[in-house]
Amino acid sequence: GESVGLHLPTLSVQEGDNSIINCAYSNSASDYFIWYKQESGKGPQFIIDIRSNMDKRQGQRVTVLLNKTVKHLSLQIAATQPGDSAVYFCAENTGPGNQFYFGTGTSLTVIP
Amino acid sequence: DGGITQSPKYLFRKEGQNVTLSCEQNLNHDAMYWYRQDPGQGLRLIYYSQIVNDFQKGDIAEGYSVSREKKESFPLTVTSAQKNPTAFYLCASSIVASRGVQHFGDGTRLSIL
Known about the structure:
The complex is a heterodimer of chains A (112) and B (113).
Chain A (H helix, E strand, L loop, with lengths): L3 E2 L4 E5 L4 E7 L6 E7 L6 E7 L4 E3 L3 E6 L4 E6 L8 E8 L6 E3 L3 E6 L1
Parallel strand pairs in A: 2-11
Antiparallel strand pairs in A: 1-3, 3-8, 4-5, 4-9, 6-7, 7-8, 9-10, 9-11
Chain B lengths: L3 E4 L2 E4 L5 E7 L5 E7 L6 E8 L2 E4 L6 E3 L9 E3 L8 E8 L8 E2 L3 E5 L1
Parallel strand pairs in B: 2-11
Antiparallel strand pairs in B: 1-3, 3-8, 4-5, 4-9, 5-6, 7-8, 9-10, 9-11
């Protein structure tokens, strides 16, 4: 199967600081990526996605960066808030008809 | 509101018993999925369905069964053949099979008595 991993299993940041969560993927054929947020006891929520023809995409307080050369994906959260505390994981897809593969996740804790 | 509803939230299974997890969506999505989530692991695909009356095995289908008789419903049965069923089970749906953004329910936690 595909390998989607995260560099840091846990991350603690001060409220108001920026957070960066990383994800490495192993399949150079992957061309679509999604970041999800999962709060305790709940299902994952879509945050942002990016296709391989882009290297950056911005949403509300979030930015995803894609570096295809080193097969690396990152999620940046600006002005991190206590409500951002959750597990974040990435998912990759290699093309239509193929399944997504999910990373193990990084637990983000925001310190008030 | 449109969304995915999973029930029950918590489920307990006795040894040798089959249990069925419910998943209903009112998003009019064609594709539906079942994942298993274990601590420290990424989501693993159990089964998926691209259209009504059709479904395919995922990476860990052994010990599970599904049906897709209606577009909005995709129940998962955890059979007694599944020797390690304790996990958090997530159902998802997407407009386009295996490509569009998958929207998830809030899961069912299955435990063994």
